Amino acid sequence: MGDAGFPDWVFARAGSVIIAELKREGRRPEAEQEAWLRSLGWDPEQDEGSDAFLDRQLRVYVWRPSDWMTRKVARAFTYRRVT
Questions:
Q1: Comparing 41 with 5, which gets the higher pLDDT?
Q2: Which of 45, 47, 50, 63 sits at 20 to 30 Å (Cα–Cα) from 69?
Q3: 79 contacts 51 by C-beta, under 8 angstroms
Q4: What angle is formed at CA 51 by the lines to CA 81 and CA 54, rounded to 5 degrees?
Q5: Which of 48, 40, 51, 44 is nearest to 5 (CA)?
Q6: In sequence order, which ranges of the chain are alpha helices (DSSP H)?
Q7: What's the pLDDT at 48?
Q8: Cβ neighbour number for residue 22 with a 10 Å cutoff
Q9: Whole-angstrom distance, CA of residue 22 vs CA of residue 76
Q10: Each residue of 25-74: pLDDT tens digit?
Q11: CA distance 2 to 74
């Protein structure tokens, strides 16, 4: 078993890392989960779908089922070269 609260998914490719915690609609991360997410740079007030956020090499998300329908998850995997 890993550390309590460690995020559900970690993806890495070509120097970029995506970390995602999966939650049910209306649920927030538990205290241990939030501690991990914040230590990795997650800001609950930040708009995770913004273009500026997609330019970061380490991106931390909390995804819910509705995020699949709004394409927020698909946008997270869009590769954009920072120029």
A1: 5
A2: 45
A3: no
A4: 55
A5: 40
A6: 31-39, 51-54, 65-69, 72-76
A7: 54
A8: 15
A9: 14
A10: 999 999 999 999 989 888 887 755 444 455 578 889 999 999 999 988 99
A11: 27
Q: Quick one: pLDDT at residue 49? A: 46
Identify the sign of the CA torsion 29, 32, 35, 40: negative
Residues 30, 51: Cα–Cα separation, whole Å: 27
Please report which confidence band the pLDDT of residue 1 belongs to, taking 50, 70 and 90 as the band edges. Answer: low
Distance CA 70, CA 83 (A): 27
What is the rounded distance in angstroms from the CA atom of residue 51 to the CA atom of residue 59? Answer: 12
Written as six digits, the tokens of 79 are 């590769």
